[in-house]
Amino acid sequence: MLRKVSTLSIAAALVAGVLMAAPASAATSNGSTCTTVNKTTKVSGFTYRCVTAVKSTVTLDGAKTTIYIPATATTKNAKKYYLAVDCINESTSYTKSAKEIAGLETSTAAALVEIDAQIAAQVTASASVQTQIDALTKENADIAIKIKEQTDLIPIAQKEVTDLTVKIAGVTKQIDDFTVILNDSKTKLTTLRADKVNAAKNAVTITKLATAVSQLTISITSLKTYNSSSKIQMQSLNGSISKYNSSIMQLKSTVTKNLASIENSKKIGSTIVTLNKTKELTSSQLKQAKDALTQTMNSRNLLCSAGL
């Protein structure tokens, strides 16, 4: 915008300078005929170049004004005229800007369509936002109950594991003690049975020892079975504790995801506002570019006015 104001100021200065110098330099100005393309001449400090151009009529400040515009390769009925270098440069700038505006209009239209589609999607989504938030909030409340239930079960299972560990240790000691007694009884029984001389005398003792050996063997087997069962039960409890911890982690992860979804749902309203602002800004930028192009055109028309 500042560049355009500066250009218009230069144009005004050029007009003023040419008008003041008109009596002495009326022979060369915008629209003066020439014969050699690119030949230049200076008038009162302003440079004019011979170019192929076309004559046109525009409205400038409410009045019909004749201007000369540099021709392109496809322009018909172009003739050779002297034009101020500032006129030529501003014409080039206008042509370039006009092409850029055409591309900008296309990209802006596509961008606005995309933004409108996003706004429509957000509006549709916002219709069910509160329902989603309520559902996720309820789910989190239900999950919190499950987390508490499973968290409460962990110390109970851990205590059972501790109790079983103590019992297994106690039973293991019993097995060891009984095994010592059993081995001692077997040794004595073997000795008595080998004493054939005192067989009759040792008969009662041998019977008692044999019975003791049998009962100790049964007891030890029973105790070992109990320990094996207890160890299996303890492994199951440890497995349950691991499952509780894993389940709690998964439930907490679900809560985190639900909270993120709730926050995203709450942002839909602000997203729509942001998209509308983006839409306004995009349209505003195109309007500013068009206004700048109009200013460039006015500057060109002023600089390319006939007789200047």
Describe the structure.
The protein has 308 residues and is an alpha+beta fold. It has a domain at 121-281: Helix Hairpins (Orthogonal Bundle), CATH 1.10.287.1490. It has helices at residues 2-25, 85-127, 129-194, 199-303; strands at 32-33, 40-43, 46-60, 63-70, 79-84. A hairpin with a 2-residue loop joins strand 3 (46-60) and strand 4. It is rod-shaped, with a radius of gyration of 52 Å. The two termini are 25 Å apart.
Outline the secondary-structure elements.
Blueprint: H1 2-25, E1 32-33, E2 40-43, E3 46-60, E4 63-70, E5 79-84, H2 85-127, H3 129-194, H4 199-303
Helix pairs in contact: 1-4, 2-4, 3-4
List keywords for this structure.
disordered N terminus; alpha+beta; 11% strand; 308 residues
Short description:
This protein is an alpha+beta fold and 308 residues long. The chain contains 4 helices and 5 strands, in the order H-E-E-E-E-E-H-H-H.
Radius of gyration: 52 Å
Q: Overall 3D geometry?
A: rod-shaped
Proportion of beta-strand residues: 5-15%
- Spans with pLDDT under 50 lasting ≥5 residues? 1-7, 16-25
> Topology as H/E string?
HEEEEEHHH
Outline the biggest β-sheet. Answer: 5 strands, antiparallel
- Count of helical stretches: 4
Helix residue percentage? over 70%
In round numbers, the mean pLDDT is 88
**CATH structural fold name of the domain at 121-281:** Helix Hairpins
